[in-house]
Amino acid sequence: MHDSGWLIFEFLSESAMLDTLGGGPYSVFGRPLILQVMPDFFDFTPPDLTKMPTWVRFPNLPIRCWTPLYLSKLASVIGRPLHCDEPTYTKSKLFYARVLIEVDLLGTLPDLVSVQLPNGSTLGQQVIYESLPRFCKNCASMGHSTSSCKKSSSKRKLSSSEGHTATSPSTAKPTAEPQHLSGCSIVPLAGPLTKVTDTPTSWRQSSPGRKRTKVFLANTIASTSVFGPPSC
After folding, report:
1. What CA dihedral angle connects 202, 205, 209 and 214, to 10 degrees?
2. How far, in Å, CA of 37 to CA of 199, rounded?
3. Percent helix / strand / coil, the chain, rounded to 5
4. Could you give phi then psi for residue 20, rounded to 5 degrees?
5. Helix (H, G, I), strand (E, B) or coil at 21
6. Which of 16, 31, 79, 128 could disulfide-link 11, Cβ–Cβ 3.0 to 4.6 Å?
7. Can you give the pTM of this predicted structure?
8. CA distance 230 to 74
9. 228, 49 in Cβ contact below 8 A?
């Protein structure tokens, strides 16, 4: 365990590590555990907790769209795609495509993406987020939702006492207007056996002679400043 609160795990094989990475989401006492492949020069300083890797499902996605390029386009509408899981890569389970995406919790996460199929028709593709933490956009921190934020409640009371009409911040995700693939910046999608280099937008295939068996994990129990409810 690192003094900054990170836990480092080493696996006997790369396949065991990848099985663990793809088996989430994980949580301890209701708090999310963030698993990632450890970069060669990992910075142990506290991370930016407004962005989080989240497994995202695309149910009933047409088979013609199960390509790395198309999944990259689809995932890039939501955030920065990291990699897909083994069943998606091998197309062994066709109920849904599953991609790990780094999402911005301060932004708006769409429930629907407008997909233009190869035949020219348009499909409203459903988006399912497997595990999103309780996140407050007012505090930019985890542990409670925006609607239950004490700061927001205090502001509403103050505004009401001054004779103004207070409006509760909305936490619902819009579904009326779907996001579109056109106009998004495309980030390459890695398969289950690829890893991210230190440059966020560059990817390389894992070398057969070099086993990547270390994973780092946020310590959600000891480091309450990372995942615990902050004082509002």
Report:
1. 70
2. 14
3. 20, 30, 55
4. -70, -40
5. helix
6. 16
7. 0.58
8. 34
9. no
